[in-house]
Amino acid sequence: MPLIESSTFTLILWALIGYGLGSIPFGLLLTQLLGLGNLREIGSGNIGATNVLRTGNKTAAALTLLLDGGKGVVAVLLARSLAGEDAAQLAALTAMIGHCYPVWLRFNGGKGVATFLGLMWALAWPVGLGCSIAWAVGALVSRMSSMGGLLAAAMSTFLLVLTGHGPMLILGILLTMLVFWRHRGNIARIRQGTEPKIGSKA
């Protein structure tokens, strides 16, 4: 049972908490902390794990992946336990928005795949598992991180329906749309055959 009724005030509060958690730029913080340079001036300039890998530090990239996913998990589980399912879904959406458009970075954040996967694990773990498998298969086969992320996002809608999580479908579609929107440049490069492979310095 949630400890607090999901009133309008409570929903607004969890929307703000979700955004705050999602907007923590772990990739940028880790590269600065480890003296790996300014992530904005490396590779694509993105703050996600794929670009952190371009520093050559696999540990930092793995930590970025885990922390970016973890903040999504924390946002959902905290909101669900304290305020119920409506608050959890709202916190999930705003956490994703916070990661992609953090106020601290002038609304220029990451592309959201790790956070998206973390959210799916917390919202419905079978969907999270399926999306993670889709991400791994897409990335390994194509050797493009973006392809893995796009495949995982595309699969999420079908997985929500197949696993009986229809009430989350609108949220799932919104999150998927965010992933695809943030990857619009990658999609254009995939079509042109110029998308960088995993591990490249581009």
Automatic annotation (TrEMBL):
Pathway: Lipid metabolism; phospholipid metabolism. Its EC number is 2.3.1.275. It is found in: Cell membrane. InterPro entries: G3P_acylTferase_PlsY. It catalyses: an acyl phosphate + sn-glycerol 3-phosphate = a 1-acyl-sn-glycero-3-phosphate + phosphate. The chain crosses the membrane at residues 12-39, 87-104, 116-138, 158-181. It is an enzyme of class 2 (transferase). The keyword Lipid biosynthesis applies. Keywords: Acyltransferase, Cell membrane, Lipid biosynthesis, Lipid metabolism, Membrane, Phospholipid biosynthesis, Phospholipid metabolism, Transferase, Transmembrane, Transmembrane helix. One of its GO terms (molecular function) is glycerol-3-phosphate O-acyltransferase activity. It is a multi-pass membrane protein. Belongs to the PlsY family. Catalyzes the transfer of an acyl group from acyl-phosphate (acyl-PO(4)) to glycerol-3-phosphate (G3P) to form lysophosphatidic acid (LPA). This enzyme utilizes acyl-phosphate as fatty acyl donor, but not acyl-CoA or acyl-ACP. PANTHER family: GLYCEROL-3-PHOSPHATE ACYLTRANSFERASE-RELATED, INNER MEMBRANE PROTEIN YGIH. Probably interacts with PlsX. This is Glycerol-3-phosphate acyltransferase. It comes from Pseudosulfitobacter koreensis. The lineage of its organism: Bacteria, Pseudomonadati, Pseudomonadota, Alphaproteobacteria, Rhodobacterales.
